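**Protein record**
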Amino acid sequence: MEKFRAARRFCGSIAAAALLCSAVPAPSGAASDTVMVGVLHSLTGTMAISEVTVKNATLLAIDQINASGGVLGKKIEPVIEDGASDPSMFAQKAQKLIQQDDVVTVFGGWTSASRKAMLPVFERFKGLLWYPVQFEGNECSPDIMYSGAQPNQQILPALDWAEQKGYKSIFLLGSDYVFPRTANLILKKHIEHDSGTVAGEEYVPLGGTDFSAVINKIKVAKPQIIFSTLNGDSNVSFFKQMAAAGLPSSKLPVMSFSIAEQEAKAIGPSLLEGSYAAWNYFQSIPGAENKKFVAAYQAKYPGSPVDDPMAHGYVDVYAWAAAVKKAGTFDIEKVRKAAATLAYSDVGMGETKFATNQSLVQTAYVGQLLPSGQFKILWQSKGPVQPVPYDPLSFPGKTCVL
């Protein structure tokens, strides 16, 4: 296999060697009845609380597709790697999957720091990453399919909803990396544009657990609501310490953009009861397709709730498989082109598709956490929202053209 890779790199760099290269044998996997894909998530570290279950949902979709005959006559073989909540590790593992494992695509990533670290790898080696998590936008790459929400599909609808409910004084709290800082930059622009007040803005290291100073600042600022872009298990410490300080969500509401059903279960619904979250999927969405998806996941992983990133991780596999079938090949460039505008519907998100900018068209929701650990849907957009990678108010003149 390594001899094949070396020959392939040699052949790809010297056009005059066409006759020589035609004699290079194909890798053993090319003629086999399997096709290899990468599954790259944090299975350890601070982000494991969120990413392990996305990995599980990805594997569920792969199992289902294999049970129905696979793709183009081949069974899908996942190569699972651990990004270990470390952006540099994500980059290393992505390169391994592409160069050493010869995967035809990769599913994974959560934090924008991990995605930003992987992006140069996919650009250099011409891979294709399916990224399943909401993010800050301000990025548009032909080497990534962005199924997670753009800002106009999550954080801005949440802001509109909050303002309509009378929340004008907002405290911005986030983990200290690119998503929270860019998301809050966008939020500040819109809060000020809407004549609201940014009561404060604070960041803690990813995985940070001491919120005493932050909570003191919140008490002094006296906001009407907190918009939280905390990620990973920092949320456990934050909500526990807020409750201990006499500021549970029932007293000072929190709108979270990274807490879903899985995190609620891990933290404890009693600590989060009454808090809000904005997503493009909730387990409580009615409909036969969603019930089927939830039942299938819980049959494989008993006792586990289902959430938005899991649904996107699951849909990504089906979207890739549909694009492969449409293209009639595993060729990355042809699959990428086939994926754009290809409609599909496999979970409670309803029929949706990737826009030509390779971001997903999807409905926005705001929910409130119940004692059961499920979300009561309070609001949803009138229909699927077109993705806008560059917020016009924050990044005027920037557009995505692929």
About this structure: The chain has a mean pLDDT of 90. The radius of gyration is 22 Å.
